From TrEMBL:
It comes from Brevundimonas faecalis. Its EC number is 7.1.1.1. This is proton-translocating NAD(P)(+) transhydrogenase. Residues 148-315 form the Alanine dehydrogenase/pyridine nucleotide transhydrogenase NAD(H)-binding domain. It is an enzyme of class 7 (translocase). The keyword NAD applies. The keyword RNA-binding does not apply. It comes from the Bacteria. The transhydrogenation between NADH and NADP is coupled to respiration and ATP hydrolysis and functions as a proton pump across the membrane. SUPFAM superfamilies: Formate/glycerate dehydrogenase catalytic domain-like, NAD(P)-binding Rossmann-fold domains. InterPro entries: Ala_DH/PNT_CS2 (IPR008143), AlaDH/PNT_N (IPR007886), AlaDH/PNT_NAD(H)-bd (IPR007698), NAD(P)-bd_dom_sf (IPR036291).
Length: 375
């Protein structure tokens, strides 16, 4: 199996789909690996390290893709990459297939068997390939680091000869994978942490991390989790009650980190412009949901907005890309595990009836085969 990895060409994408460690693992699966020069630069991996691990480093995408059976990427391939693919080639990447319609069409037209890594189901067996979790965990960490960087005061309580520095008050809204890591990171930095979510199961998780849980715990809250473990969209009535409770709390916080998402829908607005304005000057809000429409009124993708009242709203879209070396390392391992499903005895054997592959495949044989993307 000839595996190709090209440089990420999308604006601001610092991650890469293969590391020297995973080159060795892919070779152990019976594959050959060719990597485009410069692939690892954003993750501090020099070309020589790929070569030392057994990959062939080639100068441009055409030479990397010539004859490749499999193309591995972080983001969906560009038109130039797709046109250089051989018919029937396998592609695995975070295609963002619901939004990137043109990319899906191009993969279909090229006859590629394209897998969207974001569609890998969240079943126990697939945890090792779960890119949403591996990247969200790092995003949650990095959100706290960004907040600490923007904040003009310290996070921990410090007792000094010149007096005491008070600990920062951090409020995490949405306690999925990213939110849990944000809580843990803020706690490690010494902040006083509170958190909210609409799924009752999160209460115990929040408390086990040493943070305090805050939510309207009514009948709707008790039923807010789907069988798949995700949040349901909440009623206008619940959201109004939630806003009253959190609004009073937000006013007293130094840092608010929002991570609330509902699969397939716009992110719920959890911090109104009025609530943001109620915070003290110098406070920081980080909106991890900014790409999905935002949890914070007034947040802007890839900008730090400073409100009239001196509150900074941070809207970086690619937080994992700001911790690229680790994000690449984990993503690349997710991909090796995924490829393990389709490389048998050193040969490519793609069984699209296999549960995980079936859930993740988007295009095959010149057609869009994913029900959700088709519809
Ligand atoms: P997500 O990114 O879809 O959403 C983040 C959080 O926002 C969720 O906890 C959600 O409940 C919350 N949220 C939604 N609306 C809200 C509102 N109005 N107010 C406050 N919070 C709101 O979530 P995720 O990180 O992908 O995790 C979702 C679930 O999947 C979790 O239970 C997680 O443990 C589970 N999970 C399971 C596996 C596995 O079994 N392999 C892997 C990863 C995650």
């Amino acid at each position: 199996v000839a595996i190709a990895v090209t440089r990420e060409r999308r604006e601001g994408e610092t991650r890469c789909a293969v590391t020297p460690e995973t080159v060795k693992k892919l070779i152990a699966l019976g594959a050959t690996v060719s990597v485009e020069a410069g692939t690892g630069l954003g993750s501090s991996i020099p070309d020589d390290d790929y070569a030392a691990a057994g990959a062939t480093v080639r100068p441009d995408l055409a030479t990397v893709l010539a004859g490749a059976d499999v193309l591995l990427k972080v983001r969906g391939p560009t038109a130039a990459e797709i046109s250089a693919l051989k018919p029937g080639a396998v592609v695995a990447a975070m295609l963002d297939a619901y939004r990137e319609k043109a990319g899906v069409e191009a993969l279909k037209a090229a006859g590629a068997t394209a897998f969207a890594m974001e569609f890998v189901p969240r079943i126990t067996r697939a945890q090792v390939m779960d890119v949403l979790s591996s990247q969200a965990n790092l995003a949650g960490y990095r959100a706290v680091i960004e907040a600490a960087y923007a904040y003009g005061k310290g996070f921990p309580m410090m007792m000094t000869a010149a007096g005491t520095v008070a600990p920062a008050k951090v409020f995490v809204m949405g306690v999925g994978v990213a939110g849990l890591q944000a809580i843990a990171t803020a706690r490690r930095l010494g902040a006083v942490v509170t958190a909210t979510d609409v799924r009752p199961a999160t209460k115990e998780q929040v408390e086990s991390l040493g943070a305090k849980f805050l939510a309207v715990e009514d009948e709707e809250f008790r039923n807010a989790q789907t069988a798949g473990g995700y949040a349901k969209p909440m009623s206008a009535e619940y959201q109004a009650k939630q806003a009253v409770l959190t609004g009073e709390h937000i006013r007293k916080q130094d840092i608010v980190i929002t991570t609330a998402l509902i699969p397939g829908r716009a992110a719920p607005v959890l911090v109104s412009a009025e609530q943001a304005a109620s915070m003290k000057p110098g406070s920081v809000i980080v909106d991890l949901a900014v790409e999905a429409g935002g949890n914070v009124e007034g947040s802007k993708a890839n900008e730090v907005v400073t409100t009239a009242g001196g509150v900074q709203i941070v809207g970086w879209t690619n937080l994992p890309g700001r911790i690229a070396a680790d994000a690449s390392a984990l993503y690349a391992r997710n991909l090796v595990a995924f490829l393990g499903l389709m490389i048998k005895d050193g040969a490519l054997a793609v069984d699209l009836d296999e549960e995980i592959l079936k859930a993740a495949v988007v295009t095959h044989g010149g057609a869009v085969v994913h029900e959700g993307v088709k519809g």
